[in-house]
Sequence to fold (193 residues):
Amino acid sequence: MRILLHICCGPCSLYPVKVLREQGHDISGYFYNPNIHPFREFERRAEALEQVSENLNLPVIWDESGYGLDIYMAKIGTELRPDKRCPVCYRIRLEKTAQTAARMGVPAFSTTLLYSRYQRHDLMKKMASDIAARYDLEFFYEDFRQGWVEGIEMSRSMGIYRQPYCGCIFSEQERYAKRAERMRKRLSNESPS
Ligand code: SF4
Fold:
């Protein structure tokens, strides 16, 4: 089956591409991630996927919108907490992947977000299946999390950049939450009373 595989980043694509090819599917990648900030991080992740594309001989469609901070912020509005913003973030990317698959005449789509241990699988599965039905497509679900360790080993052996946070500027802030709090306390203690 031809499948358009939404790719969130290079390292997360390695195991899903391997499994889908072993199952006999014809895979094209699709990079559309307006959630990745700041620009330098977006650039590094795009470069990592270029490396994967070359190593695996994987065709990749690069969405023409490019770096999408404005697209992402317009969609999430004031819903900044993870339980609010992450479902919106999934929807932005899954919807556009389905639109692109339909436009290309590809009958099915999937996503490398299903490789991540940190994403909400049940929610994504339901959301993507609903979107697929609207476009008369199939959403190809597979629990790629079982290849978590193998995927990490593959990315290390290829020397591919592995990102240290999920993608949005808020996840970058959350990554440093404890450090930021320690700094805040230190600086406030240094203030003249
Ligand atoms: S934490 Fe990840 S999934 Fe959630 S909004 Fe940010 S980039 Fe999207």
Observations:
- The chain has one domain: 2-164.
- The CA atoms of residues 40 and 169 lie 12 Å apart.
- The first strand starts at residue 2 and ends at 6.
- The radius of gyration is 18 Å.
